[in-house]
Amino acid sequence: METRSERNIIKKKIKKKRLNIARTLVVVLVVYIIVCVGIHLYQQPVKNYVITGNSFLTDVDIIRELNLEDYPSFVSINTKKLKKELENNVYIKKAEVKYHWDFTLSIEIEENTPMLFMKLDGKVCLADGTLVDATNDNSVGIPILLNTTTDEALKNLAVSLSELDEGVLYLINDIEYKPSYNSSNQVIDSNRFLLSMNDKNMVYVNAKRLKSMNKYLDIIATNKITSNGTLYLDGTEDNYFFKKFE
Fold it and tell me: What is the tally of structural domains in the chain?
């Protein structure tokens, strides 16, 4: 026959088994809830794209580049992969892709914008100096380089043009490479260019100091220049003079 102590031990074992079963049920329930929530989230599509930093590329161009036209599952999107795909595009310098909890995907880009159409070889020079074939999309509305230049001067020019104020950039029509020489025919300034402006003025400027062009409209207004001529900005930063056409 069982003693009282033996019966107590058996009761304790039964109680322990009941507690383990209850705990297991709780764990299963929690896991089930997590799985259900996960499935629900995985099935939720992207609800909105917020794209910033683009002017040459359209929002549609970027969405198509990433194959996001069908608004895929939000959770299935790999932001690092999308960033890499964007930065493989020659027209994009940098990209950032981020999640937002309202099922929005934000895409921020820094463009490698077309800066110059090169008339002699039919190429377009981008902001970082990269050359691409000219198309109707990338060659319209940008300055035209009329002659050949050195690779270094071309890159300096393209980079500096990309840093100009938009309003000033749109005033530039044609560009000609015009290095200056001394009396011994030695090059003094290998980064010198002549800009033909839409207002019929001409401007000499050094590609590395092209930011001085942002003062162009102020110079015209301050000096009350009403007749056309040549503005020389290829000297020191604050040194310039204007010569009327004969």
Answer: 3
